[in-house]
């Protein structure tokens, strides 16, 4: 199913339809503030496995992240955040960043990396955040399989290619082609892992 949502004022009825699909173990493709992503409810084990099958990756090795609604939502899924780290997150979020943080006990085991970390995002995208708010907890997020290509910006083309393997393709308009900037916050200093759409400059001592 291809479902159109207004980018700035997503129709509540359509949001509800998508959330019901997620709660039922469905897999969706939806817009973020960077690229379109594969998503499911983080607590639907079978849906997580489906995403890993679509991507042809092992769940333990997959680069999966959580889409959170805001910082308080994010803090439920990571261990205690220090004041300087909280300030930094507040500066950059919502925005096109994925922060690697230590996973809390609330993160389902299938989604923890071997290092017990999780990637957390608060995208600057109304559709993604509206879905998370209605769902009541984060959505799993992963990039579409294969190389990032121009077709992955067009919801109609995405639907043509992946409509048979997902339940809903959310059409929120043309998407981007540059992924999020990934920052590892598990060490003493934040480390840039991948330069993406978000600007990142390490502050000099």
Please describe what this structure looks like.
The chain is an alpha/beta fold and 205 residues long. The protein is built from 6 helices and 10 strands, in the order E-H-E-E-H-E-H-H-E-E-H-E-H-E-E-E. The protein is globular, with a radius of gyration of 16 Å. It starts with a strand and ends in an 11-residue tail after the last strand. The model has no long low-confidence stretch (mean pLDDT 91).
The proportion of strand residues reads: 15-25%
Strand order of the largest sheet: 1-8-2-3-7-4-6-5-9-10
The appropriate CATH architecture is Alpha-Beta Complex
Question: What is the overall shape?
Answer: globular
How many individual β-strands?
A: 10
> Portion of residues in helices?
25-40%
CATH topology type? DHBP synthase
Low-confidence stretches: none
What's the average pLDDT?
Answer: 91
Corresponding CATH superfamily: DHBP synthase
What value does the Rg take, in angstroms?
A: 16 Å
What topology does this entry show?
Layout: E1 2-4, H1 12-23, E2 28-30, E3 37-41, H2 45-55, E4 65-67, H3 71-75, H4 83-92, E5 97-102, E6 117-121, H5 126-135, E7 139-143, H6 155-162, E8 168-171, E9 181-184, E10 191-194
Parallel strand pairs: 1-8, 2-8, 4-6, 5-9
Antiparallel strand pairs: 2-3, 3-7, 4-7, 5-6, 9-10
Helix pairs in contact: 1-5
Outline:
This protein has 205 residues and is α/β, with parallel strands linked by helices. Helices cover 27% and strands 20% of the residues. The chain has a single domain, classed as DHBP synthase (Alpha-Beta Complex).
What are its keywords?
globular; 6 helices; alpha/beta; DHBP synthase; single chain; 205 residues
């Amino acid at each position: 199913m291809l479902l159109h949502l207004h980018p700035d004022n997503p129709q509540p009825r359509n949001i509800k339809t998508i959330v019901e699909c997620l709660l039922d173990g469905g897999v969706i493709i939806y817009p973020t503030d960077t690229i379109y992503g594969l998503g499911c409810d983080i607590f639907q084990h079978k849906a997580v496995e489906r995403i890993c099958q679509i991507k042809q990756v092992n769940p333990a090795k997959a680069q999966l992240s959580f889409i959170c609604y805001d910082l308080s939502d994010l803090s439920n899924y990571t261990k205690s955040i220090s004041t300087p780290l909280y300030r930094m997150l507040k500066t950059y979020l919502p925005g096109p960043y994925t922060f690697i943080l230590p996973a809390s006990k609330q993160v389902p085991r299938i989604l923890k990396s071997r290092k017990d970390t999780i990637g957390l995002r608060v995208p600057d995208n109304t559709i993604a955040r509206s879905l998370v708010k209605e769902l009541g907890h984060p959505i799993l997020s992963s990039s579409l399989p294969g190389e990032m290509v121009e077709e992955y910006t067009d919801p109609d083309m995405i639907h043509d290619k992946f409509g048979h393997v997902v339940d809903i393709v959310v059409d929120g308009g043309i998407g981007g082609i540059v992924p999020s900037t990934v920052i590892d916050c598990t060490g003493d200093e934040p480390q840039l892992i991948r330069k993406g759409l978000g600007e990142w400059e390490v502050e000099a001592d």
